[in-house]
Amino acid sequence: MKKLLFSFVLALMPFLLHSQCGNLYIAGVIDGPLSGGTPKAIQLCATSAISDLSQYGVESVTNGGGSGGAAEFTLPADMLGAGECIWIASDSLGFNNYFGFDACYTTGALGVNGDDALILYCNGAAIDVFGDANVDGTGQTWEYMDGWATSNDMVANPIFTDSEWTYSGINALDGATDNTTATTPYPNATSNCPGAGAISGCTTATACNYNAAATVDDGSCYNVGDACDDGDATTTGDVYTDCATCAGTVTGVPGCIDVNACNYDATATVDDGSCFSVGDACDDGDAGTVGDVYTDCATCAGTAVGPCSMYIAGVIDGPLSGGTPKAIQLCATADIADLSQYGVESVTNGGGSGGAAEFTLPADMLGTGECIWIASDSLGFNNYFGFDAC
Among candidates 194, 224, 236, 230, which has minimal Cα distance to 104? Predict the structure, then answer.
């Protein structure tokens, strides 16, 4: 069974987002030499495109107090391209004074010292760790007081491994006023803060869904021959047969397998959803009928709505206060299954018709010879006739 590409993309989106959890890692941390130990910050970099950073968050663990098991700061729903990096800092002023550019995000959760661990989360699970969350870093190999540490392998690892990091050594930044003139500067002082004008999409020009306007690849690119899911449980080996069609090979005999249905197929092995029975809704193809159902296994029929089955039976301008009742009586020459096809318009002082109903009746039914009233108000009508207008 063939499905439109749009349906496939919608079904695939949750998987695409979950699969991006391995696309971000802790690139480095810094405990700076400026007032208050600023900049205090963490650098995160993407190995592949990320369409929604809000899956990610960070937690700081002070003095070996152990992880709380959840992010203290969650990133906003921005996008990040492959190879791009962002900074999260404890404050903006100290960070800018040292690096000469702004941090992408700031949070009090980054108010750490050089002996504190940091954890990166994705969808609630820890995916990368710097430092031992259960150990105060003072005197440890990973201590970065007035210094920094950077990743060697550019791979997220939920278990802290000392050999995967390069360290400046403690107090390496003492006396420095900015990164450019520091004796041991932070080595990858780059930032790619997501821009407000970023456009997510497929950036591969040869792909079926290439988007020339996209500035950030969202991982959605696909080509003819790529695996897909056509949404049909009776097929296997689903692939894109062209850029708009995902199709597989039928592995059973599709048909109606309900023995009580009108269209039961004894040869069918896989139900294709086509079963129907007497009384089930259908469409008889006649716009002049409503309530179409199968009257027998071979016939779909509805009730004729009869466009000419109602007429104006009378009008009244009454003698009571305000000239009430003011009303119109309508009567049916045949059964009407749906009154909502009818409406009335009033034209005052010979001003000409507006060509459309000002009041449309509700979807009620009316029998042959029956009449209804439409009035300007209910009280005056009832006082005069002794019954309510419809």
Answer: 194
The residue among 257, 279, 280 whose CA lies nearest residue 268 is 257
Alpha-carbon distance of 89 to 105, in angstroms, equals: 6
How many Cβ atoms from other residues are within 10 Å of residue 58's Cβ? 22
Least confident window among 64-68, 129-133, 268-272: 268-272
User: How deeply is 111 buried, as exposed, middle or buried, from its count of CB atoms within 10 A (0-12, 13-18, 19+)?
Assistant: middle
Q: How many helices (H) and strands (E) are present in the chain, helices listed first?
A: 3, 24
Q: What is the DSSP letter of 2?
A: -
What pLDDT shows up at residue 16?
41
Q: Residue 243: which of 215, 212, 206, 213 has the closest Cα? A: 206
Average pLDDT, the chain: 88
Structure tokens at 324: 């009430």
Euclidean distance between CA atoms 182 and 177, whole angstroms: 7
Q: Report the percent of the chain where pLDDT is more than 70.
A: 92
E-strand stretches of 230-380: 235-242, 245-250, 254-255, 270-271, 289-296, 299-304, 310-317, 326-332, 343-344, 359-360, 371-375
Read off the pLDDT of residues 206-264 as tens digits, 9 standing for 90 and up. 999 998 877 767 778 999 999 998 887 778 889 999 999 999 887 778 889 999 999 99
Residue 318: strand, helix, or coil: coil
8 Å CB contact between 245 and 229: no
What pLDDT band is residue 279 in, cutting at 50, 70 and 90? Answer: very high
Helix intervals (H) in the chain: 5-19, 92-99, 378-385
Cα–Cα dist 197/9, whole Å: 23
pLDDT digits (tens, 9 = 90+) for 163-207: 999 999 999 999 999 999 999 999 989 888 886 445 667 889 999
- Residue 8 pLDDT > 60, yes or no? no
CB 103 within 8 A of CB 116: no
CB crowding 112-129: b at 16 or more within 10 Å, else e = bbbbbbbbbbbeeebbbb
Residue with tokens 């009335």: 344
